[in-house]
């Protein structure tokens, strides 16, 4: 796989919850950390995502916000 994004983290899919058009995919990246992505149901099918599968969380953001209480 080649990709321009530099923020990629390998992990294991722990949950795939599909909705009407989109799905939430939870990826355990170790150390008690989980990344959740919202992608289309079509992408889930095309990628063959299932619990236990290895996958990469690819983070590409133009903005990062910080908040405090």
UniProtKB/TrEMBL annotation:
What Pfam families does the record point to? TOBE
Q: Domain Mop, which positions?
A: 2-68
Q: Which InterPro entries match?
A: Mo/tungstate-bd_C_term_dom, Mop_domain, Transp-assoc_OB_typ1
Q: Does the keyword Secreted apply?
A: no
Per the record, the domain of life is Bacteria
Q: Quick check: keyword Lipid biosynthesis in the entry?
A: no
Which GO biological process categories is it annotated with?
A: molybdate ion transport
Recite the UniProt keywords alphabetically: Molybdenum
**Protein name (Swiss-Prot/TrEMBL):** Molybdopterin-binding protein
């Amino acid at each position: 796989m080649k990709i321009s994004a530099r923020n990629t983290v390998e992990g294991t899919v722990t949950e795939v919850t599909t909705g009407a058009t989109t799905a939430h995919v939870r990826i355990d990246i170790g150390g008690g950390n989980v990344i959740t992505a919202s992608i289309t149901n079509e992408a889930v099918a095309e990628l063959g995502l299932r619990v236990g599968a290895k996958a990469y969380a690819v983070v590409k953001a133009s903005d990062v916000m910080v908040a405090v209480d």
